[in-house]
Amino acid sequence: MSDDANNTTPTEPQLLGVLAQFPDAHDLVAAARKTTDEGYRKVDGFSPFPLHGIDEALRAPKTILPWLVFCGGVTGCLVALCLQYYVNGVEFPFIYSGYQFPISAKPIFSLPANIPVTFELIILFSSLTAFFGMFALNGLPKLHNPLFRSERFSRVTNDGFFLWIDAGDDKFDETATSDWLNSIGATSVEPISEVVEGRQVPAFLLAVGAVGAAVALVPPLWVAAAAGTSTSPRLSLWWDMDYQAKFKPQTTSDLFADGRAMRKAPAGTVAWGSLQEQQDQRYFEGIEPDGVAAHRGVPAQFVSAQVEGDAPAEAPPEPNWTKDFPVEVTEELMERGRERFDIYCATCHGKAGYGEGLVTTRALSLNQGTWTRPLSLHDQAVREQPVGRIYNTITNGIRKMPGYRLQVDAEDRWAIVLYVRALQKSQHASLDEIPEELRPKR
Ligand code: HEC
C-alpha cells in the first residue's frame, strides 16, 4: 500500500509537466501560439473565461465526438431493423425466434411500419453516445488533478491565465522548457509532479464503507433467502391490501343480506351532470314545475309504449308546457337563434321552415320512400304549440326527428325556439301587428 509495498527507498515523484502563469488573456493566447509554433504539441491553456482564438493557438485537435455520435446513430438504426426483422420478420426453424404477425394481409416485414422504432433507437443510441462519449473523451470522472496542488493555480477561476506543457511532449525537457516559457513572458513557471504522499484512504472511511456495504447487503440477501425456498407465507406489511375481500358490483355475494354486493342508490339520487335539470324544470325541460310529472328524457309521445300492462294504454297526459320564454328575449338571442337554426334545423326544415331543406330535397328526389318529410313549421298545429313544446321537440326529438340535446345546449335551444317563433310570425302576422310606418304603401 505505502512505500514499503513498492520500494524501500522513497521514489522520486514523477514530473508531469510545467505550468506557467501569464499576466492576461492576450499574453496567454500569444504565448500559446508561440509555444505551438516552437514545436510543442501537448499543450493546454487555462483561463477563467472562454478565450477567442485559444483553440487555434493551441492547435487543439477537433473533437471526434460527432463521428462517435454518428456511429452510435448508425448502430441504433441497424439494431432496430435487425431486432424488428428478427422479432416479426423471419421464423427460423430451429433457433428461437419471434412471431410473424400477419395484420390485414400486410407484408410481414415492411420498412414504413418499422420506421418509428428505428427512429427512436437512432435517437437513443446517438444521445447516449454523446453523453458518455463526452465523459470518456474528457477523462471523467476524475476525482483529483495534480494541478490543484499548485497554490497559484487556484486563481484560474478568478484572474489567473495558465499555460501547461505536458512532460509527455517529444520536445519536453524540464530546464529547456522552463527557460522557454520564461523567455516568452511567463510571470512564473512551476514544475508539477505526481502526487505520491497521502494516497491512502483514511482507515476510518474504509471501516465505514465496509460496514455500510455489509449492512446494505442484508435486505437483498434476506429476500433472496426467503424467495422460492421458504414455505412460510410471504411477508405482508399491509394486510388489508393483500387479503381484503373483493366484490364485483353487478354479481351476487354474501356481503349483504339481500345478496347484492353493492347498495342500491338512495331514492332521489341524481345522475352526475343532471342536477341542473332537476332544479329548473322550465328552463331545462320547457315544463311548468307544477305541471304533470315530466317523463324525463323521453318524448311524451313515446311514453305510452313504455307503460306496462293493460292495453288500450291511455294517451299520456300532456305536460304543462311552458308558455313564455324562461330566458330574456333579446335581439342578440334572436341572432343566435337564426344562426343555430340555419346550422342545425335548416338542413331538413329549410331556411324558411317549410320543409324545403337540402337534405329533404335530395331525399325526396331519390324517391326511396324512406324519408319522412318534416312538418312545416308554419303548420297550424305547430304555430299553436306553446314554446315549451317546441323546446321539447328540439331537446328530445319527436317520432322521426332526432333529439338535439347533445349538440345544442339549453340556452341555444331557447334561442332556436325564439327564431322559430319569428319565422312563424313572418308568415302569419296580421296587418295590425305591423307598425304603421312599415306597412306597404298602396
Ligand atoms: C334530420 C332532419 C331534421 C332536422 C335536422 C330537424 N328536424 Fe324537425 N322534424 C323532422 C321531421 C322528419 C319531422 C316530422 C317528424 C314526424 O312527423 O315523424 C320534424 C318535426 C319537427 C317539428 C314538429 C313537431 C310536432 O310537434 O309535430 C318541429 C317543431 C321541428 N321539427 C323543429 C325542428 C327544429 C327547431 C330543428 C333544429 C334544432 C329541427 N326540427 C331539426 C326532421 C328534422
Automatic annotation (TrEMBL):
GO molecular function, one term: metal ion binding
Top-rank taxon, per record: Bacteria
Gene3D superfamilies according to UniProt: Cytochrome c-like domain
Pfam name, any one: ActD
Domain Cytochrome c, first and last residues per copy: 332-424
Transmembrane segments: 64-87, 121-140, 203-225
Alphabetical list of InterPro entries matching this protein: ActD (IPR021776), Cyt_c-like_dom (IPR009056), Cyt_c-like_dom_sf (IPR036909)
The entry's keywords: Heme, Iron, Membrane, Metal-binding, Transmembrane, Transmembrane helix
Name this protein carries in UniProt: Cytochrome c domain-containing protein
Species in which this protein is naturally found: Posidoniimonas polymericola
Taxonomic lineage: Bacteria, Pseudomonadati, Planctomycetota, Planctomycetia, Pirellulales
